[in-house]
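Aggregate trends can hide what the representation actually does to any particular protein. In the encoding step, the backbone of a single protein was reduced to a row of integers, each denoting a local shape. The record that follows shows the chain in one-letter code together with its fold in token form.

***
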Amino acid sequence: MKKIFKILIAAVLGILAYFVIATYPKLDLISGFSAKSIASGHFIDKRTIETIEKGDNDIPLLNLATNTVDESEQSASSSVYGLKKRKAIYREGLGATLINADFDVHKPYLIPKRNKSTSTLPFPYGNSEPKDTIFQEVDYRKLKGAVNSTFDASDTKEKRTRAVVVLYKNKLIAEQYSTGFTKNSSILGWSMTKSITSSAFGVLVKQGKFDIHKSAPISEWQDDDRKSITTNNLLQMNSGLEWEENYSSICDATKMLFLAEDMGAVQLEKAPKFKPNTQWNYSSGTTNLLSKILRGQFRTHQEYLDFWYSAVVDKIGMNSMLVETDMVGNFVGSSYGWATARDWSKFGLLYLNKGNWNGEQILDESWINYTKKPTATSNGGYGAQFWLNAGGKFPDVPRDMYYCSGFQGQMVAIIPSLEMVIVRMGLKENPDFDFNGFLKKVIESVKQSKAMVE
């Protein structure tokens, strides 16, 4: 018995040692991710804690977190076995923000002034229900099958699609939602928000107020090698700055999202590792630095907050969109944009139509072309805060497709040659979710589309 007891003690100590070495350093990130996820999902999309825990937070290690919501304070708190408690607060107009212990929750704050569309035009150009439009070249039975095939049967979690919207020739031709989600559900786009950030620069360029090919306007870089980095390099993820983006570990990206007060400052402080335009490296820190640069283009913080919406979002009637802010009040342009699947499709439609929205030129066509021009060192996979299929990542999809892409498989696919926008929101991404197969099936529902792909 003594021997067995000693073995048990050794096993327990071994488990504790493993926990301390492998897991304890991650507790800040686990509780931070969980608190932020609960606060955003609950206060933005009105989901219950249980729904968020079983849906959004059912990924390794997050199930260790214990979560509570304070309705009166509009906050969510999470901890792991009572350790490393983190809190996220919700503020109308700014969304949920993960805060540190010394954050002043009583300090006055600014919120964006919105001019939301009240258009009675049918969706997608207005807020009324879309009119039935029948295209002779669309095989609607095949299309319905293609869309339905991306959703799970009840009580399974194999594909985890939440929403699909398909636009063809500026009309809605397919739409479907999983249980618990509707056309009114706001869904986190994660890194699709990067494309929103890029669009804000596109408007400044159109207005003649910004030159992306000049050195990035960052005073801290002017006395070292970083002064040669242009805003174009940043938009194309080609700055040469150090950055690690690996969501399965403690890295630059996770520390930024779940620990940093000023997320834009994290990439700003990194040292150069390569010369600009010689080494493509995906970096959410770069996009938040771009958000910080945008802040510097406006005299007041209110003007900065308003611009993101007045320049693009509200112009195209993305009434549901909300971009959340960090602790210093800047938009987390890398990751925290929320909108309905329909509103995400509106954003895709703006780009499909070369920056024109129902007769108004919001972005110059030259900006759209710049957006989808392959970055020199990305092997045809990346443009300016948009992903590309120019390198053939999806072999059964036209090479001219470019797309917004987010963590866990969010996608707004824009296919100019087929006049299509395809939106998929969910909780699984490549390779667990077959995007190539899904897109191929939708495309093939349009007769003669195979010839167009070839």
Summary: The first helix runs from residue 2 to 23. Residues 212 and 232 are 5 Å apart (CA to CA). The longest strand covers residues 83-91. Confidence is low (pLDDT under 50) at residues 16-21, 450-454.
